[in-house]
Prior knowledge:
By secondary structure, the protein is an alpha+beta fold.
Amino acid sequence: MKKLLVLIIIVVIPLILIFMKTPSFAKIENEIDKISELVTDEARITSYTTYGRFFNLEGEINKILPDLVLILKNKETEANYELILTETNHGTAFKTTNLINKGINLENIPIGNYILLLKSGNGDNTKYYTLKDESKMQDINYYTITKDNENREINLQFIKYKDKNYLSLEVKKVKLPSDVYDIVIDPGHGGRDVGANKNGHYESKINLEYALKLKESLEGLGLKVKLTREEDVSIPNYGDDSRVSIAYESKAKLLLSIHQNSAVYKVGNGGVEVYVPNHADTTFATNLAKNIVDNTSTIYSKNVSHKIGSGVYLRTFSEDDIQSMKKEADKKGYTYYEKATTDSTYYFIIRETGGVVTGAYVDERYDEKPWNTYYNSNQGLESYLLELGYINSTVNLNILLTEQDKYIEAITKTVKEYLEI
Ligand SMILES: [Zn+2]
């Protein structure tokens, strides 16, 4: 009896623990055995990330290979993904995207166990290349958007098998964990921070009303929605229980930050402005602004600064912004963090919730209480800031107060189409 107990402790329990850690490893081994004889070399991965629903990677291989593609392979299927290739001094640099919200849509990969490889040539000349991690980034754990009350979990991890390195991708059906959400809605401001105000109407309260209604409407589509605040309270932007932390911890794919605009000058009838992340496709923002204008009495904003399309705005740090941030750093005695450049998105809620993809950053004045503990995350949310209208325009304020249901309908429709629910 004692011997049996010892056997269980020494042999069985460690085995169970190993299998708990990588439950599908045996299945992946099976796939690799079939592929490994076709593998001729290895490529180095320098970055692998998700932004919203999109997975992307970057790397380099020591060969000139102008026909290189990325493939997702198992014994039944082989899906091809185009790569953007650049010849370098050392060989070929490759990446899956130039736009952060494009690339490999994780929602579209069927349940199964796969290996990601590079491929060149065709027919008898087909050659495969394995992927080795040189990024120092974390394994990726992703949950698909809730559709028909169902979710899948996707795990991407680098594994070593028979002295070769592989990037494995596992897709399985799961029940969504209680702390994982599809969408985050962030009602801007709150509590003492009332935001813009006009004749006793406070932006913080209007934002919350919109957010609560939008949550209910999106839940009607079967989506699981997290609010950064549910009451008229002030919450921090960074650190514990902050807007940024709540967003990351939700593992959501999309974030909408709701605001009302205001200006010191006359804005006529005001209008809608949707702020987008830098280096992103603007389909969602374009459709959102259009659906709001079509469905409500509001107009496209006539504000031309940072405008990149009808109702679509991209604001990045200006040279002046950076100079004043540097001056402040000098004055207060800390080193300016060089990652904030004219390439960085101006609004923190967009920049700081995208992790490495949007150049989220910390600087040393926040050493003890970090500015954003998730700044280095390789999984981020696709985030937009919505200025629904100008409350200093009497016409626009009236629309914002009386046509809330029409706005909600327009936003819901846009989300539904974009997420393909
Ligand atoms: Zn605001």
